[in-house]
Amino acid sequence: MRNFTNEDQAVRDDLAQDYCRNWELDAGTDAAAFRSAMRKVVGGVTVITTVHEDRPWGMTVSAFTPVCMDPPTLLVCVNRETVTASCITKLQRFAVNVLSQDQLAISQFCSRPREDKFVEEFAVPQSDYPDRILMPVLKDSLITLDCIATATLVVNSHLVVMGRVTSVLAPTAKKPLLYGEGQYMHGVSLQMAVA
Fold first, then answer.
1. How many CB atoms within 10 Å of residue 145?
2. In total, how many domains does the chain have?
3. pLDDT tens-digit profile of 40-96?
4. Residues in CB range of 88: below 8 A, 6 or more apart
5. Same structural domain for residues 120 and 33?
6. Cα separation of 164 and 149, whole Å?
7. Is 182 inside any structural domain?
8. Does residue 157 sit within a domain?
């Protein structure tokens, strides 16, 4: 085993110091720092759909993740002061629509704060999808996951909802709509690029 000399240690210390000077963000736990850090996470764009005043309603959310496969369960977080949170609490039903690149307009429409988000013009007519799906399905989505809310938890400003997936609907494959660094993006397959 090689023994490190004082000179080796000095080189390692210099490298570490140079590396640490390159932090773009170096902060504690304040909300602005956390928000800035989360902007660096690139993920698929989702719109939660529900029914409000007997009409399809949608809200763009960034907090969505699968939880387990058996039974199929996912988690979403919505601001608890929104119509969407109120509808989920009342109906105990919602759908997660994972958006394709063809759906930039609906993502923007459903992300407007404090405005009505009735989504009839973006929704598939109910007669065109299976009866087992109870919540609105958005046209051109990659997938729609129809869910029953099985547990909710209020965490500060948000309602955390666990949903058991009751139906999955996916049309012909499309390219995903991504979001990160405060802007919409599209992905490139690295495997295809290498080939």
1. 25
2. 2
3. 777 899 999 999 999 999 999 989 999 999 999 999 999 999 999 999 999 999 999
4. 48, 50, 78, 94, 149, 152, 159, 161
5. no
6. 6
7. no
8. yes
Give this prediction's pTM. Answer: 0.82
The encoded tokens of residue 19 equal 């590396």
Structural tokens at position 72: 């199929």
What residue has token string 């109906």?
Answer: 91
Domain ranges, residue 31: 1-41
Q: Contact 123/117 with Cβ under 8 angstroms?
A: no
What digits encode the pLDDT tens for the residues 147-156?
999 999 999 9
Residue 57 pairs in a beta bridge with 50, 118
If DSSP codes are grouped into helix, strand and coil, which group holds residue 153?
Answer: strand
Tokens of 126: 């109910």
Supply φ then ψ for residue 24, to 5 degrees: -75, -30
- What tokens appear for 2 in the block? 């090689």
Clarify whether residues 2 and 69 are in a common domain.
no
Which three-class secondary structure state does DSSP give residue 122?
helix
